[in-house]
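Need residues for this backbone.
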């Protein structure tokens, strides 16, 4: 079945040119799109009338956390965190310890559905479930594929729960990379021993992958590194070879000095900015000065709405960064360059959103960025096409039964919150 978007106004995501046409969307991981003048459909074609609608490339998320999906509304932690380290300890490292296979599946389904409905057809995820490491990536991949969202996954390897669990993270990563596109995930420099870091880089070399790691999200990461390794975080990661991969993703990068920024600038590694998460954790503000243009945007697991992340990057950037209209759009779209330049599959031209965007003013190529920043929101996402397949039609997911899944996720959320109450701290 081929999808046709009839009478659409197509916006080229790179040139921002507007074009009126019927669009033929060819299916598959290498499918493209064609502009059709003489349109005649076959009976089994899926024809969507897009008169008055805008069609453009769908969106991608550069840094997400499936594991946090069931945290919404879970209430205050047992102990009130006083700083970033305690936010991890009392909230996220408590939650991830309680995940099991079922709650991972529920988290992944919830994330995939939310992503799809927000027009996000590609998610780069960073997953942790230290007491359910085995097969966790396979479970997430399957859940994403059920909904029709493409992915680039990794397991967040860390020594924070002991070397045995770090070892399990390495094995899970290797098992997954043998058959799938993926990355080698590391939590952050301050929970990674030299041995684990070395093993992760070796694994990345063996599978021609890259490292996905949190970097200097809080000052604590730098302070710990200076105290324990007598060098700064990026110096340590660079010495270990992390920056040698063009697939490497460095999350946050808030507290880097000029030398560290220079090392990143002269590498092929990518930086991912997560403004709302930084505000929420009160850890500081991203500033691109001293870096190159390899900067993309993520949600850090807070939500799955990349239009929201793009706006946040722009607004925070007014006080703390040099970011203008073209700049924030470039960061928003850079995920596609990251994926294509590294030959990852699932983000071709046949990934599209149909926007039902009602504007009170003229909308064209020359003022697209103003509309993109102040007008277009995820509520305008009406249909979503992933690899040539309609995965959201009239704001409903098509591949799975959302109501049934939400029952399942609620049940799993309750179970997870109950387990979290039983965790004790020294
Ligand atoms: Zn993160």
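Answer:
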């Amino acid at each position: 079945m081929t999808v046709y978007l009839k009478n659409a106004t197509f916006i080229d995501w790179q040139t921002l040119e507007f074009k009126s046409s019927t669009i033929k969307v060819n299916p598959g991981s290498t499918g493209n799109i064609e502009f059709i003048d003489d349109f005649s459909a076959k009976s089994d074609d899926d024809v969507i009338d897009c008169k008055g609608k805008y069609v453009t490339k769908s969106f991608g998320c550069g840094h997400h956390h499936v594991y946090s999906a069931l945290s919404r509304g879970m209430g205050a932690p047992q102990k009130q965190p006083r700083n970033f380290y305690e936010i991890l300890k009392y909230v996220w490292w408590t939650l991830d310890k309680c995940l099991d296979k079922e709650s991972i599946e529920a988290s992944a389904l919830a994330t995939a559905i939310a992503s799809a409905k927000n027009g996000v057809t590609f998610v780069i995820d960073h997953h942790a479930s230290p007491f359910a490491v085995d097969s966790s990536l396979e479970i997430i991949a399957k859940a994403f594929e059920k909904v029709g969202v493409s992915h680039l996954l990794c397991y967040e390897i860390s020594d924070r729960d002991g070397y045995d669990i770090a070892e399990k993270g390495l094995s899970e990563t290797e098992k997954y990379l043998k058959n799938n596109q993926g990355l080698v995930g590391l939590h952050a420099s301050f929970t990674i021993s030299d041995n684990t870091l070395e093993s992760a880089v070796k694994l990345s070399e063996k599978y021609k992958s890259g490292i996905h790691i949190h970097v200097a999200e809080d000052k604590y990461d730098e302070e710990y590194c200076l105290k324990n390794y007598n060098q700064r975080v990026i110096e340590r990661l660079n010495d270990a070879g992390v920056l040698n991969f063009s697939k490497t993703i460095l999350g946050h990068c808030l507290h880097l000095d000029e030398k560290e920024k220079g090392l990143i600038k002269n590498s092929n590694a990518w930086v991912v900015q997560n403004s709302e998460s930084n505000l929420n954790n009160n850890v500081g503000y991203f500033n691109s000065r001293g870096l190159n243009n390899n900067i993309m945007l993520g949600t850090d697991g807070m939500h799955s709405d990349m239009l929201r992340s793009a706006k946040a990057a722009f607004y925070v950037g007014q006080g703390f960064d040099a970011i203008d209209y073209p700049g924030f759009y470039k960061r928003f779209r850079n995920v596609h360059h990251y994926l294509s330049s590294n030959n990852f599959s699932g983000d071709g031209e046949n990934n599209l959103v149909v926007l039902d965007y009602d504007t009170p003013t003229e909308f064209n190529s020359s003022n697209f960025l103003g509309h993109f920043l102040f007008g277009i929101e995820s509520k305008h996402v009406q249909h979503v096409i992933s690899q040539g397949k309609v995965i959201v039609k009239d704001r409903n997911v098509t591949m799975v039964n959302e109501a049934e899944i939400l029952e399942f996720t609620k049940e799993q959320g309750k179970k997870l919150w109950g387990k979290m109450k039983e965790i004790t701290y020294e």
